[in-house]
Amino acid sequence: MNSARRNELIHRLLAGRCELCESTEGLEVHHIRKLADLNQPGRRAQPAWKHLMAMRRRKTLVICRRCHEDIHAGRLAKPYQK
User: Fold this and answer.
1) Start and end of every AI2M/AI1M-like HNH endonuclease domain (predicted)?
2) Given a cut of 80, is residue 5 above it in pLDDT?
3) In degrees rounded to 5, what are phi and psi of residue 52?
4) Which alpha helices (H) appear in 1-82, and where do they start and end?
5) What is the pTM assigned to this prediction?
6) Distance from C-alpha of 76 to C-alpha of 74, rounded to nearest angstrom
């Protein structure tokens, strides 16, 4: 089972696309500390990237540099258009 999880992340990396905007350049992996951080009651609506991680039940997201910077700056409310 443990190797299956590693395989899944490796396959996502090898796909070579940002999971938010589908860009193919400058890919990075965004990590969160724990899944419980995604579903905090009493907070405003979740950004699209948090919703995607919660839906997949994954603590990682393969994204491009631009999306990663925007997540950390609090600017990414919804995915970029292609």
Assistant:
1) 18-68
2) no
3) -60, -45
4) 2-14, 48-56, 65-73
5) 0.76
6) 6
Tokens of 32: 């969160």
| pLDDT tops 80 at residue 35 | yes
Indicate if the pLDDT at residue 16 is higher than 50: yes
Of 41, 43, 44, 12, nearest to 28 by C-alpha is 12
Q: Domain range for residue 61?
A: 2-73
One-letter amino acid at 50 equals: K
Q: Which two tokens stand for residue 36?
A: 């419980």
When divided into structural domains, the chain yields a total of 1
The end-to-end CA distance of the chain, in Å, is 35
Residue 29 belongs to a domain: yes
Structure token digits, residue 81: 């258009």
